[in-house]
Amino acid sequence: MVKANNKNELVEYSVKYFQEILEYIEYLPNEIKNTIFTNDELNERDKTVSDVICHLHEWHLMLENWYKIGMKGKMPHMPMEGFNWRELTKVNDIIYSKYKGTEIKDAIKMIKNSHNKMMKILDKHSNKELFETLPYEWTGKTTLGRFLDSNMSHHYQWGLKTLKRLDKIVKKVGNKAKKN
User: Fold this and answer.
1) What is the pTM (predicted TM-score) of this model?
2) How far is the CA of 81 from the CAs of 8, 43, 87, 144, in angstroms?
3) Could you tell me the CA-to-CA distances from 173 to 2, 30, 32, 46, 168 in Å, in that order?
4) Are 34 and 104 a contacting pair, CB within 8 Å?
5) Which DSSP state fits 77?
6) DSSP 8-state code for residue 130
7) What is the C-alpha separation between 68 and 121, in angstroms, rounded?
8) 50 has which bridge partners?
9) How many angstroms separate the CA atoms of 151 and 65, rounded?
10) CATH architecture of 7-166
């Protein structure tokens, strides 16, 4: 997966991969968009297209919260209060449970909103503030740019890769429709 190394790349990749996700979802037949998969077609956790989108959305919200707390000079609970980075599976399971059953149209609306918030945060900072220095205590040994990249362009690439696992099913649906 491509990682951004400067602000220009972070903006470019975030916009590019976010748009690719939206275009891919638009391309999916409605029956696929609304299917609950039971055989790990997407991954072990996510059962719907909406689950993948809500996962990305919630990570935006988490980063937005860390950012707001961190920029006030306080240390946010990362990744989530009561959990550490070694417990990401549990954190992601909580996210899954929180959004389970969300309609795809609602998930898309939410992620568009949270993506725009992430882009506004990104826009506030210079390349130096994002990638060249470690000016923020709350980010520890990681730059702010890496946090944004992990929650945006890099995470979007994961989401797109996950969704594209449905290509085989889409082809089957298309072939079945042609036969009828």
Assistant:
1) 0.94
2) 32, 25, 11, 20
3) 31, 11, 9, 21, 9
4) yes
5) P
6) I
7) 10
8) none
9) 13
10) Up-down Bundle (1.20)
Around Cβ 120, how many Cβ atoms within 10 Å? 10
Question: What whole-number distance in Å separates Cα of residue 36 and Cα of residue 48?
Answer: 5
H or E stretch at 53: helix 49-70
pLDDT at 175: 56
Across the chain, which has 180 residues, the per-10-residue mean pLDDT values are 95 98 96 94 96 98 98 97 97 98 98 98 96 88 96 97 92 60
Q: Which two tokens stand for residue 159?
A: 């989401």
3-state SS class at 136: coil
- For the record, the structure tokens of 43 come out as 């991954």
